[in-house]
Design brief:
about 110 residues; alpha+beta; Ybab, Chain: A; 3-stranded antiparallel beta sheet; rod-shaped; YbaB/EbfC; YbaB-like_sf
C-alpha cells in the first residue's frame, strides 16, 4: 500500500515536470493570424504572448477601424493559441494520471 502511494507520488512529480517542460516549449510554438484582407497580422505564442503585430498603412488612417481589426484578429489568434495550449497540456496530464478507481474522467 505504502509503495503504491510512493509510486503514485513519484508519477505525479514526473507529470508536473512534464507539464512545466510543455509550458516552456509552448513559448516557442507560434500562432499566426491575419485579418480577412491581410491588412493586419499578429503572431502569438501558444502561451498567448503577443510576439508581433503588422499593420497596413491604410489602417493607420482610421483609428476605429484599426481598433476593430485588432480586437477581431487578436481574439481569433488567442482562441487558436488557447486550443493548442489546452490540448498539449491535457495530453501531458492525461498521460501522467495514475489509475485511481472512479477517476476515469480523463479517458
Amino acid at each position: 500500500m505504502f509503495g503504491d502511494m510512493m509510486n503514485m507520488m513519484g508519477k505525479l512529480k514526473e507529470t508536473q515536470a512534464k507539464v512545466e517542460a510543455t509550458k516552456k516549449r509552448l513559448d516557442t510554438v507560434l500562432v499566426d493570424e491575419s485579418s480577412s484582407d491581410n491588412k493586419l497580422k499578429v503572431t502569438l505564442t501558444a502561451n498567448r504572448t503577443i510576439k508581433s503585430i503588422e499593420i497596413d498603412n491604410e489602417l493607420l488612417e482610421d483609428k476605429e477601424q484599426l481598433e476593430d481589426y485588432l480586437i477581431l484578429t487578436l481574439n481569433k489568434a488567442i482562441t487558436k493559441a488557447t486550443q493548442i495550449n489546452e490540448s498539449e497540456l491535457a495530453a501531458v496530464a492525461k498521460e501522467g494520471m495514475p489509475n485511481i478507481p472512479g477517476m476515469d474522467i480523463y479517458k
